[in-house]
Structure formats: C-alpha cells, structure tokens
C-alpha cells in the first residue's frame, strides 16, 4: 500500500518523476499527429476559409472540447454552430463557458482572416440568441468575408505560442503593473471589464476561494465524473481523440499497466490517483501571485460571447508578454453545489447581480508548457 502511494505521489509530478521520466526516454510521448495543427494550415491547403479555421481551432476552450462546427455552403461566409455533442452539462449547465469558447474561436478567426487577406464581419446570433438555460441548434454567428489587404495584427503572431499553463508559477514573482496595463489594453472589448490583483492579502483570499471551489467540484460526482470521462490516458487515447485532458508520460504508462491509473481510480476521491491530482492542483494554486478576471455588466448570451473575444485577446497578449495564464473556472460555475463559492468570489470581487465575473485566471511566470492536442480542421466542417 505504501509503495502504491509512493508511486502515485510520483505521478503527481515530484522531482523523482521527472528523473525517472527522463531515464525512460520518450516512452508514451505526446503523439506528434495530435499537435500537428500547431504548425498552422498545411501549405497545400488552398481554401482560405479552411486556412483561417485551421488557425481558429487553436483557441482556448473549456476542457479542450473544441465544440465548433462550421458550414461553408455559402461562398464568402462561414456559419459557426456549437457542436452540441461536445457540451459540458455537469460543470457548464447553461452553456456559458462553451459560448465563451465560441467567442475565443471567433476572435482567432477574425485575426486569421486579416492575415489571410480578408475582412471578417461577425454577425452574432443571426437567428436570435440562445435561451439563457441551453444552447440550441441555431447558429452562433455568420462570419462574412470580403477581400482586404493582408495584415498581421500583432496578436496574431501569438496564436501558436499561446497555452493554458496548468503548472505552478513562481510564487515570488507577481506580474508587474506595466505588463498588466498592456494586458488590460489588449483585452478591452466593449461591455467587458478587466481587473487584476497582486496584493498579497487579496491573492490569499482568492487562492482560498479557488481551492475550496476546486475541492467542491472534485467531490461532486457528476462534475468530477465529467472531467474524468474526458481524460485521455496515454498516447493511444490522445491520438484517437485529440481533445479533452491529456495525461501521458512514463508514469501514466506504467501506472496504467499496473492497474493504478484508470478512469475508475481517478474518479475515486479516496484513492491515490485522485490524491495525486489534488496535490498537483494545490501546488498550482499555491504558486499564484497574481489573479485577473473579466467581468460583464449582465449575463446575456452577447455578454458571454464578448467575454470570449476579450479572453482570446487577453490570452494572446499574455503569450506575447511571456506571461503564463491559466483559467480557474470552478467558482464561476452554475450548479447548486458551487453556489457558496460563486457568492464568495463575487463578494470578494465587489460584483453584484446582474454583473458577474466571466473568467478568473492565474497569471505569472513559468516555463511555457507543451501545447494541447487539436483535431484536424476538416473535422469541424459539417
Ligand atoms: C471558458 C473557459 C474555461 C476554462 N476553465 C479552465 C479551468 O477551470 N481549469 C483549467 O485548467 N483550464 C481551463 N480552461 C483552459 C482549457 O482547459 C484549455 O483552453 C484547453 O484545455 C485547451 O488547451 P490550450 O488552451 O493550452 O490550447 C478554460 C478555458 C476556457 C475558454
């Protein structure tokens, strides 16, 4: 039992794990084909709309579901739909986060269109916005494309550099004020507010809320089960799905073979694989010296889409600045078990309904992690 615990602790990312991982070489490495989209569109991909979409799918999105479908039947237009087979009903019951992930996609699409020589005019919700409680089959947006001189906006250069940095940051190194001011400028989108803090007392209170909310999610079977179902264990599963939460490397490989790492083990709050996840996340939260958040005056579908556009810009600007960014969304989620943390967070941020936070992120300094998998662009086309 002790050995089992020790092994699992290694899985949590202790220094020994890195040593052992190194000595085992490239065992269970991230499959190259899952990362191929990070090279940008293939040189022989001629259709400009597919080229833009190949950039857009590098957008941050909840749980890496990549919940995007596009209809290219009308020339000169892209119609974006939510892929409703890729929703997160337990942790995102209203579809708010999925819609933020449509906004991030649209902003990358707009930037890519500029770079490919098109002006993109985005018409959101052309058949009316979704109801507040669910995402239906109507389009998220029509994107009208007209030829224009090719222009690389500076944020476009960060598209392949961007990452959600699910790693501890240097706890002694908050993000400097001038850099925060540049992030605020990049994220300025009508109706969306940006704020940040590196004040130690406030950061300590926010860490406590983030930690408590994370535990609540982990101990709510439907919510935690949703994440576990999306875990891709090892290179073969990652290559097959190219989405979700990738877990790979020698420790996962050995753990799977020894029966210590499995979906059931990861779902069991009393088990050691689960505990390894707890340790990993607590290290991340403790290694946070700056938090930032995006707010909206209300929580309409248009606010959520705008928050996604602002978040894409914030994320790209962070990549440009060499600042690590990591969303921590649990306390923002809309299921009953989370309500006390939602209230505590909004009280801490000084937000009263109908205003709300749409994104909460850790900001800091850390080595740039590897990218997360993406599906090929063709898989988005209806
Ligand atoms: C609306 C939204 C909420 C997110 N919430 C979380 C979160 O709570 N925890 C987390 O680790 N990542 C979160 N992410 C980051 C995604 O997991 C990440 O974008 C996805 O896995 C793809 O990885 P990449 O951003 O590195 O390309 C969120 C992203 C978005 C757009």
Explain what the structure shows.
The chain has 382 residues and is α+β, with helices and mostly antiparallel strands. It has two domains: 2-32 and 164-364, NADH Oxidase; 37-160, 3-Layer(aba) Sandwich (NADH Oxidase), CATH 3.40.109. The protein is built from 14 helices and ten strands. The chain has helices spanning 2-11, 15-23, 32-35, 48-56, 96-116, 177-186, 200-218, 221-229, 235-241, 250-257, 263-267, 272-286, 301-321, 339-349, and strands at residues 68-71, 77-82, 118-124, 141-147, 192-197, 231-233, 245-247, 290-296, 324-327, 356-364. The strands form three sheets. It has a four-stranded antiparallel β-sheet with strand order 1-2-4-3, with helices on one face. α7 (200-218) runs antiparallel to α12 (272-286). The radius of gyration is 20 Å and the shape is globular. It starts with a helix and ends in an 18-residue tail after the last strand. The relative contact order is 0.19. The model is unreliable at 1-10 and 12-25 (pLDDT under 50). Bound molecules: flavin mononucleotide.
Major sheet attributes: 4 strands, antiparallel
Helix content bin: 40-55%
Over the alpha carbons, how many angstroms does the gyration radius reach? 20 Å
Bound molecules: flavin mononucleotide
The figure for the number of domains is: 2
* Proper CATH architecture of the largest domain: 3-Layer(aba) Sandwich
Total count of strands = 10
The low-confidence parts are: 1-10, 12-25
* CATH first level of the largest domain: Alpha Beta
Measured between the Cα atoms of the first and last residue, the distance is 50 Å
What does the average pLDDT come to? Answer: 93
Spatial strand order of the main sheet: 1-2-4-3
CATH superfamily of the largest domain: NADH Oxidase
Give the overall shape: globular
The amount of beta strand, in percent, is 5-15%
**Which fold name fills CATH's third level, the topology of the largest domain?**
NADH Oxidase
């Amino acid at each position: 039992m002790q050995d089992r615990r020790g092994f699992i602790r290694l899985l949590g990312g202790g220094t020994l794990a890195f040593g052992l991982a190194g000595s085992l070489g490239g065992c269970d490495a991230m499959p190259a084909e899952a990362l191929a989209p990070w090279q940008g569109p293939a040189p022989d991909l001629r259709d400009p709309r597919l080229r833009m979409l190949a950039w857009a799918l590098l957008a941050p999105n909840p749980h890496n579901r990549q919940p995007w479908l596009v209809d290219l039947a009308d020339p000169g237009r892209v119609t974006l739909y939510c892929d409703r087979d890729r929703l997160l009903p337990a942790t995102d019951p209203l579809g708010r986060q999925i819609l933020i992930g449509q906004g991030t996609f649209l902003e990358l699409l707009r930037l890519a269109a500029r770079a490919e020589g098109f002006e993109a005019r985005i018409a959101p919700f052309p058949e009316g916005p979704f109801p507040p409680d669910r995402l239906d089959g109507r389009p998220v947006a029509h994107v009208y494309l007209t030829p224009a001189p090719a222009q690389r906006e500076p944020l476009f250069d960060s598209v392949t550099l961007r990452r959600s940095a699910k790693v501890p940051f240097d706890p002694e190194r908050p993000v400097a004020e001038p850099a925060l001011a540049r992030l605020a400028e990049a994220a300025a989108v009508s109706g969306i507010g940006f704020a940040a803090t590196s004040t130690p007392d406030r950061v300590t209170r926010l860490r406590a809320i983030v930690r408590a909310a994370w535990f609540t999610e982990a101990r709510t079977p439907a919510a935690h089960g949703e994440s576990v179902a999306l875990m891709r264990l090892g290179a073969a599963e990652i290559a097959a799905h190219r989405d979700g939460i990738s877990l790979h490397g020698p420790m996962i490989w050995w753990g799977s073979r020894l029966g210590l790492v499995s979906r059931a083990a990861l779902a069991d709050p009393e088990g050691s694989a689960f505990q390894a996840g707890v340790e990993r996340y607590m290290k991340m939260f403790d290694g946070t010296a700056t938090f930032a958040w995006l707010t909206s005056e209300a929580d309409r579908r248009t606010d959520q889409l705008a928050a996604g556009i602002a978040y894409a810009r914030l994320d790209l600007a962070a990549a440009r600045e060499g600042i690590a960014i990591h969303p921590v969304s649990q306390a923002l989620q809309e299921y009953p078990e989370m309500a006390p943390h939602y209230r505590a967070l909004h009280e801490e941020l000084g937000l009263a309904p109908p205003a709300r936070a749409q994104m909460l992120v850790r900001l800091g300094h850390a080595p740039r992690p590897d990218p997360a998998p993406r599906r090929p662009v063709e898989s988005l086309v209806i």
